[in-house]
Amino acid sequence: MARFGVEEEFVLLDEQTLVPAAMSAETRQRILDERGSGVTPEYLTCQLESATQPCRTLAESGEQLERTRRMLGAIAAEQGALVAATGTPFVSPNRLRVSPSPHYDAVSAQLVEITREHEVNGLHIHVEVPDDEERVRVVNRVRAWLPTLLALTGNGPFAHGRDSGFDSWRSILIRRLPSSWTPPRFHDLTDYRARVDQLVSMGAIAEASSLSWTVRLSERFPTVEVRVFDAQLTTEDTLLAVALTRALLCSDEIDDLAGTGTDGIDASLWTAARYGPDARLVDPVDGGIRPAWTIAEGLLTRLQPALEELGDAERVRDGIARLRVDGSGARRQREAYAANGTAGLRELYRSGTSTR
């Protein structure tokens, strides 16, 4: 059974205004000192990233994710703040500082003005694939299916204190980076490394770990890392994304049968980010244009054997049923704001890191 790891990014918000807030040095150190939390600073001083230990089951992963969220929520509350798991904050002052580190200094020097609006929070899922060449083949097989997963899981509808019109505004902001969205199709590992080295040599990225493709090879672990998702509102939302991703990467029934070109996949990512579950996408099976839910239903059928083998089939059935009723995180955020303004968003965000 393939092991996996989960990285979640969070943003610290002022409890009253929902404006991103830099953590005090004391708060940040207290969080980083929390034993076994797996929490590290993220790009901006208002951001944190948590990482699980390698897991074999969703239950094991869920325990770690819940524990970290509760800890972050409790410590933030003591500072008059809350921790939100959202792809983009509701409002941004565009004056936040970059977390001090050689890596982030290099990224900031590269992005310059982009940094002012680069308040994005993602969910990154690592799945272990021991063989080097097989990892590249997995990237080739799954890249055309990722718009479908994005369409179901968008969770970043707001920008500058208003509805952006997109389910995943984070995806649009990421698009401005020089190595974003869909990776090319690779011949083999040598080709993968050559293309990454080219980007570094051009000065397009500072190092291989700065790649912003929706799927890439990890530079630290023998894993394929899927990065298409916004941060998810709840642990249950995260675990649904994890179960779908692991099955997708492990399944023998998945391929881009239509040979979808990078432009077609990127167009599908755009419509997925814009319209969420109502998007129309390129179907990787035959290249036809179909509703996201139609493609998702076909994908779930193909993934069923892998989901059964991994023990995740029931969890995914329940998660998809919940998604059909409650909607994506983007829909739930819009509904909370429509019902009760920023107070509604505040309670929704707080429920994702509840101490109860």
Concise summary:
The protein is built from twelve helices and 13 strands.
Q: Write the element-wise H/E pattern from the N-terminal end onward.
A: EHEEHEHEHHEEHEHEEEHHEEHHH
Number of strands: 13
Helix content: 40-55%
> Main beta sheet: strand number and arrangement?
7 strands, antiparallel
How would you characterize this protein structure?
The chain is α+β, with helices and mostly antiparallel strands and 356 residues long. The chain contains twelve helices and 13 strands. The strands form four sheets. Strands 1, 2, 3, 4, 5, 10 and 11 form a seven-stranded antiparallel beta sheet that branches. The longest helix has 23 residues, at 329-351.
What labels describe this entry?
single chain; 356 residues; alpha+beta; 7-stranded antiparallel sheet; two-stranded antiparallel sheet; 12 helices
